[in-house]
Structures are given as C-alpha cells and as structure tokens.
Amino acid sequence: MRQLLVAICAVGIAPLLGSASPLQDEAAAMKWTLVDGDKFELKWSFSETRRREPGRGEVNESHDKRDVDAELAFKADGILTLTLKKVAWSYGNQDSEVTLMYVEGKKLDPQLKMKAGPTAPGYQVSKADADRMVDYMKKLTEGEFTINTSAEVGRTLVMWNGGNVRNGTLSLFDRIFTHPLLPSGPVRVGQLFKDPLEVTNLPAGLVEVKTVESKVTAVGDKGSIAKGGLNVPVAKSIIANNQTQNWTGNFTYSCEWNYHPQQYLQGSKEESKFTKKVDAKGKDADFYRENFTHTITQALTIKKKAPKPGEEKKPATAKPDEPKPDEKKPEEKKPDEKKDEK
C-alpha cells in the first residue's frame, strides 16, 4: 500500500517538476536600459546613529538622518538627471543640531541649534562640524546631480557636477548604496559572487572583513533580486598597565537590490550594525568600561513614471481666423479695379 501511495504521489508531482524546470534556466541581466523620455520617481532614506555609554562620564550620541524625494529624467545614453523635490535632513549630537526642510523652488534655510554652552567640553569641535554642515546645506542645489549607469560597467553611480559623490567629500548622497559591482552578463537563481565590503562602521583591527558574498535569489516577473550578508562575532582580550579588558560584540551586514524586468534598478537596501561591550578589571576599571553601538540603515526605491496624456506631442493646428498651411487666402479686389469694371 505504501509503495502504491509513493507511486501515485510521484505521478502527481512529475508534471509540476516538468513545468518548473524551465524556470531554473531563466536568466536576466542586471542592467539599466534607458530611452529618451524615461522618467522615474526616486525615494531614498538614510539613518546613521552612534551611542557610547562609558563607565565614567557622559553618554555621547550622534545621528545623521536624510530623506530625499527626487525625479530622474533621461538626459543622454546611460545618464539621468536628478532633480530634488523634497529633502529632510537632521544632523547632530549631544551638543548641536542642524536641520534642513527643503521643497523644490523654495529657499535653502538650514537651522543650527547649539545645545551646549561655549564653555562645555568639545563645544568648539561640535560648533565647527555644525557650521561645516550648514555651509554645505546652503549650496545643496548648486550644480547638477545625475545618475550615471555607463561610466563604470556594472555600477550605478550618483554624480555631482560630473564627479562621483562617494569620493570622500561631503554631499547629500555621499553615503548612498545602490548596489555592489554587478556580474557581467545574465544571472541565474543561486549564482554567487563576492564584492568588497564598503562600510564606515567596520572598526579596523577589531573586525577583519574585506568582502561580502551575495547570491541571486530570484529571476522572473518581479525582477532580478540578489542578497548578501555576514555576521562576525567580536572577541578580544587586552592586558595592559595591570588592566584586563574583555571586548565582546558583534558586526552584522546585509544588503539587497532588485532590478525590474524592464531592466532598471527599482530598489536597494543596506544595513550594518556594530556593537561592542568592554568589561574591565583592576584599578580605574570604570574608565575603560563602555557600551558602544553604531548602526547604518538605508533604503532606495525607484519607480518608472507613466507618461501623462498631455505629454505626447500634438501636430500644430491652424487658428480659426487663419488659413491652413496648404490653403491660400482669396484674392481681394482693389478699389480702382472695381471702378474699371463699372
């Protein structure tokens, strides 16, 4: 009886397996295909937070949060212009806060609030950092932002005045994650590839990670999706000056990106988190103890805009009181010609 049931199940499953086999061979390239007239809506959110709780002293915190709405429009082969529509930016720490609320066409007016007095420890450093941010925000719309999909094969780059925003200088998009270096040619489900890990909260000398492995998880009607990630524990002991310090913690990283079946990047995500706890024993142990957390999260979505009915070019029409281009006005008789006819 058992053998009969197995045979029946095998017969019932066989057609399903047969229909699924072509999907295993399905492949698609992760790339941008742009044509004149293409327009997209872009939304990007970014958040970076740090918090340090020392065993002795005040808690130190900092944050950098950005929300951007923009429009992308075809400029040239492989290039899109990026026009800012809305920007909400909050940047600061326990000493200062800089905020910007911008809407297209309005004045750039960043606000600076100092929370600490001029005599507070670290005031001058915080004030200089805040002033630098204010100066940049006032020039946020100067020049031109573009998305370049052809400057480097396999990359989607955000440019400002022709230069890559991720060159180490301050920029609204200097921390944006689109995707790592893409594989050349079509990708298939299960395909693996490695890329350099480019994050700013990876502490050198404590966590040694140079690459992250990614895997294609889907190819089909919903797009081509790839995901990557890693998890690295932190464990370190230090003995110095009659002090014993035990460091424990964790570093996690994950990313995902998705190409639309019409071949344009429709979304990407990135998250990295580093935690560290230091326990100390011996003289002045409180001075060395600390809890530290550094987290970065961001999400990018891009949606293609359908052309509006009125955007199609319409042939020129003649005004009612004017003749059409292929028609001539009737000849009018001059007054002296009428006299001759009489």
Q: Could you please describe the fold and organization of this structure?
A:
- Strand 12 and strand 13 form a beta hairpin.
- The N and C termini lie far apart (about 120 Å).
- The chain has one domain (about 30-310): Roll (Lipovitellin-phosvitin complex, beta-sheet shell regions), CATH 2.30.230.
- It has helices at about 1-25, 125-135, 285-290, 335-340, and strands at about 30, 40-55, 60-75, 80-95, 95-105, 110-115, 145-150, 155-160, 165, 185, 190-195, 210-220, 225-240, 245-260, 265-280, 290-305.
- With about 350 residues, it is mainly beta.
- The longest helix is centred in the N-terminal third of the chain and has 23 residues, at about 1-25.
- Strands 2, 3, 4, 5, 6, 7, 8, 9, 11, 12, 13, 14, 15 and 16 form a 14-stranded antiparallel beta sheet that branches.
- The model is unreliable at about 1-25, about 315-320 and about 335-340 (pLDDT under 50).
- The chain contains four helices and 16 strands.
- It is flat, with a radius of gyration of 31 Å.
